[in-house]
Design a protein that fits this description.
By secondary structure, the chain is an alpha+beta fold. The chain is built from nine helices and twelve strands.
Length: 273
């Protein structure tokens, strides 16, 4: 989940250079992976997603198997609990988990650095989910610096019933280059009195909110429900409010569920062991 997302440039290959704070949360999809005689089989339940090469999990299997000696096939059952095309990184986290799991199944033929290279090929957010720690993220998403002192926070996430194309959002972004963003984040996080709400900023929000006014409505309702701040995650449309107390988050969730805004979740920080 993006706590902060600043676009600082555009590369010649079309990708955008970012500086972002990303935090893993305890909202999970479930994957069951089995070895089969041959082929790649993917079955899904929950939120509907493709089961062919258009699914990042399927592509992750193909990419991994192209790099190792493995004479069997792979079957995956995927239960989608994370909304699709919602700015929450569900597909990217599934792809990263698939790479790590297949590496375990095959007795770790690839190093973490080699898995990182494969993850970059699959998508800009996939490398972050290999490591599963609050991180300062740069480049297109492949340069990661763990944030060791990220505070315990609670997030009330609302995903309205619409899907947003990340490519469409970036394609409509009017680039206003930000300078000194990396140093600003480091200096802010070094301050023991930092207010997280001051870090909440997402350059993509202006694009998505311009076409979907519900984004700003949800932000306003989250703040009115007691959030210290609210922001859209990724390219949207999910919006989350930040809370320092679980009781406050639960109270906000109860008041917002009744407003029929979409799916509502409570999450907190999560880190891979």
């Amino acid at each position: 989940m993006n706590i902060r997302l600043k676009v600082i440039g555009r590369r010649s290959d079309g990708y955008h250079e970012l500086v972002s704070i990303m935090v893993p949360i305890n909202l999970f999809d479930l994957l069951e992976i089995d070895v089969i005689p041959e082929g790649i089989k993917l079955a899904c339940e929950g939120y509907q997603v493709p089961t062919d090469e258009n699914n990042l999990v399927h592509r992750a299997v193909q990419t991994f198997l192209s790099q190792v000696s493995f004479d069997k096939g792979i079957s995956i059952r995927l239960k989608k609990n994370i909304p699709v095309a919602a700015g929450l990184g569900g597909g990217s986290s599934d792809a990263a988990t698939t790479l790590l799991s297949l590496n375990d199944i095959c007795a770790k033929p690839l190093s973490l650095t080699e898995l990182h290279h494969l993850a970059v090929q699959l998508g800009a957010d996939v490398p972050f989910f290999l490591y599963g720690k609050p991180s300062l993220v740069r480049g297109i998403g492949e340069i990661l610096e763990p944030l060791e002192r990220w505070p315990k926070l609670y997030y009330v996430i609302i995903t309205p019933p619409l899907q947003v194309s990340t490519a469409w959002v970036y394609g409509n972004l009017k680039l206003e280059l930000t300078r000194g963003e990396y140093d600003y984040i480091l200096n802010s996080l070094e301050n023991s009195l930092v207010t997280i709400s001051h870090l909440l900023e997402n350059d993509l929000e202006k694009v998505t909110a311009a076409s979907f006014p519900i984004i700003n409505r949800i932000k306003k309702l989250l703040v009115e429900a007691g959030a210290e701040g609210a922001i859209m995650s990724g390219s949207g449309p999910s919006v989350f409010g930040v809370f320092t107390s679980l009781d406050q988050a639960i109270s906000a969730e109860r008041s917002l569920i009744s407003q029929d805004l979409g799916d509502v979740f409570i999450a907190t920080n999560w880190e891979k062991d």
